[in-house]
Amino acid sequence: QVLLVESGGGLVQAGGSLRLSCAASGRTFSRYAMDWFRQAPGKEREFVAGIRRSCGSTYYADSVKGRFTISRDNAKNTVYLQMNSLKPEDTAVYYCAADRSPTGWGMIDYWGQGTQVTVSS
Fold first, then answer.
1. How does pLDDT run across 29-78, given as a tens digit for each residue?
2. What is the 3-state composition of the chain as percent helix, strand, coil, each rounded to the nearest 5?
């Protein structure tokens, strides 16, 4: 069992930055790739970024590439999402997820409760 708790969301002006954190409980955190997803009102949940469990390789959706950076600290059981140059279209609830995919992304075992990010124009 892995419990995921996100924090760091809030209201920011366009062009600003936020850093999301996702703290995981349980001893199995390092066994999982970790992803960030987001869901805007009226839209489906979409993949934002992912990071492998050990080698740390990363993958980003085209919409955030070059602006967002995902990282993890296995010693602290925490994954981060640094979001720069935010745009109003980044407004969404952001979720972290524990991903069991050996290759590729999206085989989710656990979800966090989400944190709201609102970007004003």
1. 888 999 999 999 999 999 999 999 877 799 999 999 999 999 999 999 99
2. 5, 50, 45
pLDDT tens-digit series, residues 84-97: 999 999 999 999 99
25 within 8 A of 3, measured Cβ to Cβ: yes
Q: What is the Cα–Cα distance from 41 to 115, expressed in whole angstroms?
A: 14
Q: Are 86 and 18 in contact (CB under 8 A)?
A: yes
Structure tokens at 61: 């959706």
- Please state, in angstroms and rounded to a whole number, the distance separating the CA atoms of residues 22 and 6: 4
The pLDDT confidence band at residue 103, using thresholds 50, 70 and 90, is confident
